[in-house]
Amino acid sequence: MQIDPTQYIRQIIRNVPDWPKPGVTFRDITPVLQDPRSFRVLIDLFVYRYMGQKLDLVAGVDARGFIVGSVLAYELNLGFVPVRKKGKLPFNTVAEEYSLEYGNASVEMHTDSVRPGQRVLLIDDLIATGGTLLAAARLLQRLGANVVEAAAIIDLPELGGSQAVKDSGLSVYTVCSFNESDR
């Protein structure tokens, strides 16, 4: 029996009701990462999508984007660039602020992370409102990179983030999606 790999991954993602606050269902990827088979299937999904594309770097968003992004970069024989939360990088940085539900946050990169014209895949674990991915894409673009696509394991389409990223002109790929009613 053939199993759809995206459905396989979706079934392993843990749903944690009422976290971080009542009424919110947290989509937890740690069971996927803990199991060698599902982790390999997840990485292979991304590898198969990007192995024929001309890319120079993978940029992963702090922190779960580091896990998938660095393994993907290794598998594709590319460099990896971390997009960090503000105040975590030791060298000269450039920052981009974005809005959160209850305020603002910033992401940073080293000023020498990318060279103008480099083709970069941007990856994170989840797209909710899209603020973090949009800020990371703007940072990469400010440094001269060509962001080829934004990718994530999970899309929460009801929150509008993937549409906001698409509306910015960036292509989006996600492995699976969840609506709030999905348990």
From TrEMBL:
Subcellular location as annotated: Cytoplasm
Gene3D superfamilies to which the protein is assigned, alphabetical: 3.40.50.2020
InterPro entries: Ade_phspho_trans, Adenine_PRTase, PRTase-like, PRTase_dom
Subunit structure comment from the entry: Homodimer.
Name of the protein in its database record: Adenine phosphoribosyltransferase
Similarity field: Belongs to the purine/pyrimidine phosphoribosyltransferase family.
Assigned GO CC terms: cytoplasm
Stretches assigned to the Phosphoribosyltransferase domain: 36-158
Claim: Glycosyltransferase is one of the keywords in the record: yes
GO MF term (any one): adenine phosphoribosyltransferase activity
Enzyme class at the top of the EC tree: transferase
Main location as per UniProt: cytoplasm
Species of origin: Alcaligenes aquatilis
GO biological process: one example: AMP salvage
Keywords attached to this entry: Cytoplasm, Glycosyltransferase, Purine salvage, Transferase
EC number: 2.4.2.7
Swiss-Prot/TrEMBL catalytic activity: AMP + diphosphate = 5-phospho-alpha-D-ribose 1-diphosphate + adenine
Function of the protein: Catalyzes a salvage reaction resulting in the formation of AMP, that is energically less costly than de novo synthesis.
Presence of keyword Cytoplasm: yes
Pathway noted in the entry: Purine metabolism; AMP biosynthesis via salvage pathway; AMP from adenine: step 1/1
Short name of one Pfam family: Pribosyltran
